[in-house]
Specification:
Layout lengths: L3 E4 L9 H11 L1 H6 L2 H20 L5 H15 L6 H15 L6 H11 L5 E6 L3 H10 L11 E3 H4 L6 H11 L6 E5 L2 H10 L3 E5 L15 E3 L5 H10 L1
Parallel strand pairs: 1-2, 1-4, 2-3, 4-5, 5-6
Protein name: HAD family hydrolase
Organism: Carnobacterium divergens DSM 20623
Length: about 240
């Protein structure tokens, strides 16, 4: 039986590709016309996840990490940019992120779950604290989830897939790991991290990625948020 559900934020509760696409078209119009935007976004997320740990460890500055991820994506497609151009992209990208909205299906699920007194809710998200807090406020997530049940990687000192961030959530949220479900779109960060900490994991594979090689498997997989309400009903009632 599941009695707690914790959500990822980026590209799980909102569509992160839209602000990426818009920023790319504004800053690099020539490149945006020639490259596969969906694949470019997937690679952008890959480099974000791969290099964020370097920032957390103090090996890279936040500015360089942000420049590097878009520079690597464009380099793969035959385009070279300066660090100044990369940081200009980040500025536009952040403006676009200020316009994000919850997926309608996510809002419906959160509303339904928040009304169930037998289920607790939480958030674990990777990213710089100020940056992620802006998203949380823009998405108005505090309407459904108490702020004390939200952990942002930079402020915690850990980052997914490190199971320590999940252990911290178990302790801080007062959840039972064996009865907690983590919902996220990134198999490496979300499924591997949650499973290593003894949680249940639901892979929200709406980008329809291939499952990476891993010692872990997800407990559940969906490709559309509309599949989530019925699945949660089954998990809560079982």
């Amino acid at each position: 039986m599941i009695n707690a559900i914790v959500f990822d934020v980026d590209d799980t509760l909102y569509d992160q590709q839209a602000p990426f696409n818009n920023a790319l078209k504004i800053c690099f119009p020539e490149a945006s016309k020639k490259i596969d935007l969906h694949r470019a976004y997937i690679r952008f997320r890959f480099y974000s996840d791969e290099t964020f740990c370097k920032y957390i460890a103090g090996e890279w500055t936040l500015s360089f990490m942000r420049f590097n991820r878009i520079a690597q994506v464009l380099k793969e497609n035959g385009f070279t940019i300066t660090e100044e151009e990369g940081l200009s992209f980040q500025e536009v990208y952040e403006i676009e992120l200020d316009r994000i909205q919850l997926l309608p299906e996510a809002e419906a699920v959160l509303t339904k779950l928040a009304g169930n007194k037998e289920v607790d809710l939480g958030i674990i998200t990777n990213g710089p604290t100020d940056h992620q807090l802006r998203k949380i406020k823009q998405l108005q997530l505090e309407k459904w989830i108490p702020i004390e049940n939200m952990i942002i990687s930079e402020s915690s000192g850990y980052a997914k897939p490190d199971p320590q961030i999940f252990h911290l959530a178990t302790k801080e949220f007062h959840f039972d790991a064996t009865k907690t479900l983590y919902v996220g779109d990134n198999f490496d960060n979300d499924v591997n991290g949650a499973k290593a900490a003894g949680w249940n994991a639901l892979w929200f594979n709406h980008r329809k990625r291939l499952k990476p090689i891993s010692r872990w498997d997800c407990d559940y997989e969906i490709t559309c948020f509309t599949e989530l309400p019925n699945l949660i009903d089954e998990l809560i009632e079982s």
